[in-house]
Amino acid sequence: MRKLSEPERAILGFLLAPLVPALVLTLPAALQQSPNASGLLVHYATVSYCATLLVAIPAHILLWRRRWTLLSIYASVGAAMGLAVFLFTLIYQLPSRAPGLGPVTGRLLSLPVDVIGGVTILICFWLIARPDRE
After folding, report:
1. 6 membership: H or E segment, kind and range
2. Residue 59 is part of which domain span?
3. CA atoms of 118 and 77, how far apart (whole Å)
4. What is the pLDDT of residues 63-92, one digit of tens each?
5. C-alpha distances in angstroms, 110 versus 69, 73, 74, 103, 132?
6. Rounded distance, CA 54 to CA 119, Å?
7. Which contiguous run of DSSP H or E holds residue 90?
8. What pLDDT shows up at residue 55?
9. Is 56 inside any structural domain?
């Protein structure tokens, strides 16, 4: 079996990593057999892939070119990506993802969820692509 090249690992990382937080966030609804589980998965995956496309891919290219390939740097970029998602939903006043908690509480709870989701995506990407190995 041949080893994947660096670009192949990066592509695989960008295809798989955004699914991880989407699956984790959908898991409670799926375990409760909620009819909304598939819709939630699509929603979370859409947000994850959009953020990855707009933030993570350009950041990876920049970091890779500068040879800044430490896991901690990628985790920091993930946190910034999650913060960007939070600010986007706040600025455009998109509905809260925690509807039963009230608008302010739901918004505040989405901040750590967005940041942790961004960090998870970039850490999973780093573990798959291993940009620190040449």
Report:
1. helix 6-16
2. 6-24+39-129
3. 8
4. 999 999 999 999 999 999 999 999 988 887
5. 28, 23, 21, 11, 31
6. 15
7. helix 71-91
8. 95
9. yes
